[in-house]
């Protein structure tokens, strides 16, 4: 059977000592940085990206993926122990996780998160292996019209899934699309929107944008509150959940995994939406619904399983289609291009060892996470005691070095500052940066496929609705747009995201 | 007259960028036709949409009675972080990694209202040593670790 052959190829690549080492290093560093309050996975990946530059493509991507789910997991530890989620997808974990910690049940909360995540990671890995192959085959038959429509669907759903005003989120996407076009037009060689700056001829460096928006912008927002004293960190005693706890988390973990796997594939979805939806579903179906918000272990297990499953399945569109479904995957695509690999359906045939090795390494990485997190939780607790006044200057420095090292160019450092100030302005104006980043990365691809499609059809714009797959994708996009603007859905949408601020 | 301040500013920013980019695309780039799109076609279209969305946000800002103020802006933090990053930009290749990182860390520490020089200097030393070891020796970033700005 093909699948088994592929998986065994993947495992044979992933267990090479060097790859195991980089997987472990990635998970370890990701967890260390992710645990630090106020640093989300994207900022972590952008800062640690230079560590992977010297490596071969396969270990580089294995390590970067490890950094990603390591930081995601580290964020959950922070959310549970000090109620300060480092990233929005852990925000719901903080609701019940912190309540459990306050009642001296931090250990079982952490264990539930770890076990749930591991189970979800295992299922998601198998799912990627099963789905990515056939999807790649379908994707090979895609022409420019299909790609264009697929990206439109991605952008529309990222609007639908963003919190806050739909109008603003749409404007943010278009702003991202415009700024993403900066640089030399690939069809005619004409420089566009470079303002005469040589450093912008190759476009605006994506790592600088990511590190600026999510690193520097976030620091400025955090400094609004002045110097916060480190919060009291709960001590962690008796780690292992009781038999009763284990029984209570089985169903939530299963539901969370299913929800997360499904939502992770959606463009614009990923870990964040998965954890919100899983928590809300659990609150409605759980027999212990009354306990939610007061320290229900189900309220930790379900969103943690969901966000890990979502984080992993969001690799599916990235690997099979070469299209990022969220900002982290956009960074992954950037890293692949830097390694000289063109993301898209060809990767599986041209670089099978990378494709399947990366997938297999995710499962191994998840096992490392459990090993790292449960026994070493004391180490993470002590990291949480580092005051923010020492952390943010270090983040500034690491971001500077990180963006500098992408192309050894000082100009990227200026872009970092500009993106940071822009990011803070956007935060101040209640605009979420995620749609902007997605638009930014998709801008040039969207234009390229639009132009190709119209050239192939001899200028006939109906090409997008006469090809069946393209039409179907556009219909789904239109339906999503109509749906989110319906008053009933809009109200529900607000309710879901209100808990973000709770 | 009360208007939603945040939406007002937001709409103004989007409209401004839309008009600026649209103008640049229209005046300096060949637009072309749908069959043979010039480099200005797609940007002009996007700029038009952005301007439209910006205007819609502006109109909505006047229609709502909610005030929605900005809140405090930590100007000191904005200034010092900017200076720190600019210092890094100007000095990394001139004076080398260790001194640049040390001073950048100090400047960034000063973004905090309660800046204490001694502990910030210690933090700077720690970060600079770490960066020199990891990025300089381990990853061999092609940047001098120490350098004299006068070419000595």
From TrEMBL, chain A:
<feature type="domain" description="DUF112">
    <location>
        <begin position="20"/>
        <end position="438"/>
    </location>
</feature>
<feature type="transmembrane region" description="Helical">
    <location>
        <begin position="411"/>
        <end position="427"/>
    </location>
</feature>
<feature type="transmembrane region" description="Helical">
    <location>
        <begin position="169"/>
        <end position="187"/>
    </location>
</feature>
<keyword id="KW-0812">Transmembrane</keyword>
<feature type="transmembrane region" description="Helical">
    <location>
        <begin position="253"/>
        <end position="279"/>
    </location>
</feature>
<feature type="transmembrane region" description="Helical">
    <location>
        <begin position="193"/>
        <end position="216"/>
    </location>
</feature>
<feature type="transmembrane region" description="Helical">
    <location>
        <begin position="315"/>
        <end position="342"/>
    </location>
</feature>
<feature type="transmembrane region" description="Helical">
    <location>
        <begin position="7"/>
        <end position="29"/>
    </location>
</feature>
<dbReference type="InterPro" id="IPR002823">
    <property type="entry name" value="DUF112_TM"/>
</dbReference>
<feature type="transmembrane region" description="Helical">
    <location>
        <begin position="464"/>
        <end position="484"/>
    </location>
</feature>
<protein>
    <submittedName>
        <fullName>Tripartite tricarboxylate transporter permease</fullName>
    </submittedName>
</protein>
<feature type="transmembrane region" description="Helical">
    <location>
        <begin position="109"/>
        <end position="132"/>
    </location>
</feature>
<keyword id="KW-1133">Transmembrane helix</keyword>
<keyword id="KW-0472">Membrane</keyword>
<dbReference type="Pfam" id="PF01970">
    <property type="entry name" value="TctA"/>
</dbReference>
<feature type="transmembrane region" description="Helical">
    <location>
        <begin position="354"/>
        <end position="374"/>
    </location>
</feature>
<feature type="transmembrane region" description="Helical">
    <location>
        <begin position="35"/>
        <end position="55"/>
    </location>
</feature>
């Amino acid at each position: 059977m093909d699948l088994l052959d592929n998986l065994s190829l993947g495992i044979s690549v992933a267990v090479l000592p060097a790859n195991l080492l980089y997987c472990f290093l990635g998970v370890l560093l990701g967890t260390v940085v992710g645990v630090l309050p106020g640093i989300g996975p994207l900022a972590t990946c952008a800062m640690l990206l230079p560590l992977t530059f010297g490596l071969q493509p396969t270990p580089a991507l294995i390590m970067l993926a490890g950094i990603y789910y390591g930081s995601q997991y580290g964020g959950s530890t922070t959310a549970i122990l000090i109620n300060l989620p480092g990233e929005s997808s852990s925000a719901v974990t903080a609701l019940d996780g912190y309540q459990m910690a306050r009642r001296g049940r931090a250990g079982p909360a952490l264990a539930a998160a770890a076990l749930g995540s591991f189970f979800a990671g295992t299922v998601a890995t198998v799912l990627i292996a099963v789905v990515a192959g056939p999807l790649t085959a379908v994707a090979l038959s895609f022409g420019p019209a299909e790609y264009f429509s697929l990206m439109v669907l991605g952008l529309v759903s990222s609007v639908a899934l963003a919190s806050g005003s739909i109008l603003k989120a749409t404007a943010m996407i278009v702003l991202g699309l415009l700024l993403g076009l900066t640089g030399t037009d690939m069809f005619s060689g004409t420089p566009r929107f470079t303002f005469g700056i040589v450093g912008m001829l190759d476009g605006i460096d994506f790592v600088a944008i990511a590190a600026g928006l999510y690193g520097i912008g976030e620091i400025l927002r955090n400094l609004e509150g002045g110097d916060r004293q480190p919060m009291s960190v709960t001590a962690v005693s008796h780690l292992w959940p009781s038999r009763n706890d284990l029984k209570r988390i089985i169903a939530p973990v299963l539901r969370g995994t299913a929800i997360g796997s499904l939502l992770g594939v959606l463009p614009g979805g990923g870990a964040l939406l998965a954890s919100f939806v899983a928590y809300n579903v659990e609150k409605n179906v759980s027999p212990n619904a009354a306990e939610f918000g007061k320290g229900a272990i189900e309220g930790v297990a379900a969103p943690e399983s969901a966000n890990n499953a979502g984080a992993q399945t969001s690799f599916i569109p990235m690997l099979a289609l070469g299209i990022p479904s969220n900002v982290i995957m956009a960074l992954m695509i950037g890293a692949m291009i830097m390694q000289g690999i063109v993301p898209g359906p060809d990767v599986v045939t041209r670089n099978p060892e990378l494709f399947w090795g990366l997938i297999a390494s995710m499962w191994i990485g998840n096992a490392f996470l459990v090993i790292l997190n449960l026994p070493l939780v004391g180490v993470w607790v002590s990291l949480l005691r580092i005051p923010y006044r020492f952390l943010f200057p270090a983040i500034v420095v690491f971001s500077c070095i990180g963006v500098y090292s992408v192309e050894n160019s000082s100009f990227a450092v200026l872009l970092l500052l500009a993106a940071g100030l822009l990011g803070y302005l956007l935060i101040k104006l209640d605009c979420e940066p995620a749609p902007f980043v997605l638009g930014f990365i998709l801008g040039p691809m969207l234009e390229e496929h639009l132009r190709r499609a119209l050239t192939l059809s001899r200028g006939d714009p109906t090409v997008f609705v006469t090809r069946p797959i393209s039409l179907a994708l556009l219909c789904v996009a239109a339906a999503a747009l109509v749906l989110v603007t319906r008053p009933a859905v809009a109200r529900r949408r607000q309710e879901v995201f209100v808990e973000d601020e709770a | 007259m009360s208007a939603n301040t945040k939406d007002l500013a937001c709409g103004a920013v989007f409209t401004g960028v839309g008009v600026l980019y649209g103008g640049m695309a229209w005046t300096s780039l060949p637009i072309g036709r749908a069959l043979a799109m010039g480099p200005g076609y797609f940007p002009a279209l996007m700029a038009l949409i952005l301007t439209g969305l910006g205007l819609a946000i502006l109109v909505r800002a006047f229609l709502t009675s909610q005030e929605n103020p900005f809140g405090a802006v930590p100007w000191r933090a904005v200034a010092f972080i900017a200076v720190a990053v600019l210092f890094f930009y100007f000095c990394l290749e001139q004076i080398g990694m260790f001194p640049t990182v040390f001073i950048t860390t100090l400047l960034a520490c000063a973004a905090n209202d309660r800046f204490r020089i001694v502990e910030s200097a210690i933090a700077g030393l720690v970060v600079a040593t770490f960066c020199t070891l990891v990025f300089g020796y381990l990853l061999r970033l092609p940047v001098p670790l120490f350098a004299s700005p006068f070419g000595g």
